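Late entry, written up from scratch paper. The run itself happened at the end of the previous shift, but nothing got recorded in the book at the time, so transcribing now.
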Amino acid sequence: MPRTLAEAHHAVASIRPAQKAPLAEWLTYHQRSAAIYAEVAEIDRGHHHEALFMAEQQRKRVKDIKAQISSQRATAGEEC
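Output as recorded:
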């Protein structure tokens, strides 16, 4: 587990999926990234606010991706 914001950035970059990865893979990535930044915010107190900001940005992406997945499912349901 990363202990500094710099280590968190590196960890998040190392697990980043391919650009064309499925939304489910991106969802998992952003969920993990949010958890990493939230944890680092409690450890690296010198970067507490920045890490919290990064965690919140990741949570927003999770919300957006969930909406995209729901929209795709609804569209797929209409096609049946």
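The helical segments are 5-14, 23-43, 48-79.
(Scratch paper discarded after transcription.)
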